[in-house]
């Protein structure tokens, strides 16, 4: 029997790899919700992401971001008919919903940062405009074959919204759910991770009744706007602006763990230091910075860098960038002279996944799958995945592997030496990993 066969059997035993829909998945019981940013198609070079680059086996749910609101007559609308529609262009709606045949749930996201809050606030403010919106949404989902709607109103009660949005958002969610029931459409929402925004925007117990899942956007805690280098998505911190405090707060407010989906950022926030440190071998967290961060080559947005851009820079210019790990926030950073990026690498992702598992959350969500290393340009960086040479989606693979890893976490005390059982289980795990990746080529 070849090594591959042995590894394959072990992998089946451990993870039950299955293939019902022609996809080789790492099996686990959690949801992995993947947002796809439609505009990623317009990025240049290695950054250009089309749906042909998507590997659906890494996700259980996909959300196509974003549709918009026509504020003249309160109907849902395509924001990019060329990208979305078949008759005008490349037809991504139908391409996305075709993936339902491979066992995924495919929803349409509506809203997003650029759509603002004001028009949604007005739409939600009367039962008549809500009814128009809901009827148009049901028709729209049906027309393109989506499984559901993801509300990305950012945010009720702020950014041009009104104080009564909180109540109207409950009505909107309830009435959507009522209309969706007979079609069995999924209803989800992406919510802010910021406590003060949560307080203004959401009646957590009420919306929890009607939403199938709540996607917690547990990132953007910090950025260049702080004028200080701070983590985008700290797992822990002393100032309460962190993943664990957000989730604890939502649970206290009455959100059921089984509906909470923890958001993971496949990007970092960038900073320009006010002065170049004397040594780059320092932890830059807390250093003063300018109020605008630098851009990534493909995403081209101030203060933002996709993981694919970060890892490509580290691989192309290893002598220029110094990388490190911030223990308190469980996030990674990289420094090059006065430039700093703080981001989630695979270790940071695993730490968050393990936290989500401990809290028995429904699973995790990623914003967004199009900035993982989807071309497999950075294999050199993934030391413990060195055997996965030439392979793509290192973060998605780390996330799914961590979800499938059901080892009982050891009680927090130092282990004097690894027992033979631990050693065996580690070897089995390593073999299975190799196999899984081998099989998914
Ligand atoms: C919005 O609705 C109005 C009224 O029906 C229509 O004239 C207009 O073309 C729509 N806009 C878009 C972008 O669909
Ligand atoms: C809100 O609706 C108005 C009127 O249709 C439109 O001009 C405006 O662009 C919309 N706002 C945003 C942020 O899309
Ligand atoms: C709203 O506008 C869209 C786009 O012009 C149109 O297709 C739709 O029929 C209108 N809906 C209502 C309820 O007026
Ligand atoms: C790392 O962080 C953990 C949890 O916050 C803490 O218990 C531990 O003491 C820290 N280790 C170091 C070396 O700072
Ligand atoms: C699996 O989980 C255990 C317990 O949390 C951890 O010690 C181990 O490193 C994990 N293995 C992998 C490969 O992630």
TrEMBL record:
SUPFAM superfamilies: (Trans)glycosidases, Chitinase insertion domain. Residues 1-22 form the signal peptide. Keywords: Glycosidase, Hydrolase, Signal. Pfam families: Glyco_hydro_18 (PF00704). SMART domains: Glyco_18. Coiled coil: none annotated. The keyword Signal applies. The keyword Hydrolase applies. GO terms for cellular component: extracellular region. One of its GO terms (biological process) is chitin catabolic process. GO terms for molecular function: chitin binding; chitinase activity. Residues 30-406 form the GH18 domain. PANTHER family: CHITINASE, CHITINASE 2-RELATED. Belongs to the glycosyl hydrolase 18 family. This is Probable chitinase 2. It comes from Pogonomyrmex barbatus (red harvester ant).
